[in-house]
Amino acid sequence: QVQLVESGGGLVQAGGSLRLSCATTGRTVSSGAMGWFRQAPGKEREFVATISWRGVSTKNADSVKGRFTISRDNAKNTVYLQMNSLKPEDTAVYYCATRRALNSNIYLREDEYDYWGQGTQVTVSS
Questions:
Q1: What is the spatial distance between Cα 109 and Cα 126, in angstroms, rounded to a whole number?
Q2: Which neighbouring-strand residues pair with 18?
Q3: The pLDDT value given to residue 100
Q4: How far apart are CA 7 and CA 93, in angstroms?
Q5: Which of 45, 111, 117, 121 yields a CA-CA distance of 20 to 30 A from 9?
Q6: Radius of gyration of the chain (CA)
Q7: Alpha helix (H) ranges present in 14-79?
Q8: What is the mean pLDDT of the chain?
Q9: Please, which pLDDT band fits residue 87 given cuts at 50, 70 and 90?
C-alpha cells in the first residue's frame, strides 16, 4: 500500500517562506512522477507543481511561477515544495500525489495521479 505523508505546513506572514515535504512509503518515490496540488476554502483543488521520475522535467502553475520550486530526493523517497514570497492567496491545504511513471513526462491533472496524501495546511497572513 502506497502512503504519502505531507509535512511542513503552518502559519507564515506574507513574504515569508515554507518548505513542504512529502514522504512516500510502500513504493519508492523514484518510480513515479510527483505533484503538488492545493485547495483553498470554497474552491476546487488546483495544480501547483509537478516533477518527473528523475527530476528532469518540472512545471509550475502560473500563479506560483518564480516563487515555488519543486524538487525530489529519490534516496530519501521525498519530494519537496519550496515556497517563497508567500501571499495570502496561497493559503490552502496542500496535497502531494504520485503516479507510476518511468519517463520524463509531467502530469498536471488530478485524475492522472493514483495516490494522494492527507494534506498539510498552509496559512499566509497579511
A1: 30
A2: 83
A3: 84
A4: 11
A5: 111
A6: 13
A7: none
A8: 93
A9: very high
The number of beta carbons lying within 10 Å of the beta carbon of residue 75 is 9
**Phi, psi dihedrals of residue 112, rounded to the nearest 5°:** -90, -5
Grid coordinates in use for 58?
518540472
| 116 vs 32: CA distance, rounded Å | 13
Q: What pLDDT digit, counting tens, does each position of 34-57 carry?
A: 999 999 999 999 999 999 988 899
The letter for the amino acid at 101 is A
Percentage of the chain surpassing pLDDT 90? 79
Locate 69 and state its grid cell. Answer: 520550486
CA distances from 37 to 48, 74, 75, 98, 124 (A): 5, 20, 23, 11, 17
Output the CA angle 80-69-126, nearest 5 degrees: 100
What is the average per-residue pLDDT within 112-121?
A: 96
The amino acid sitting at 23 is A
Query: Going by C-beta distance under 8 Å and a sequence separation of 6 or more, which residues neighbour residue 88?
Result: 14, 124, 125, 126
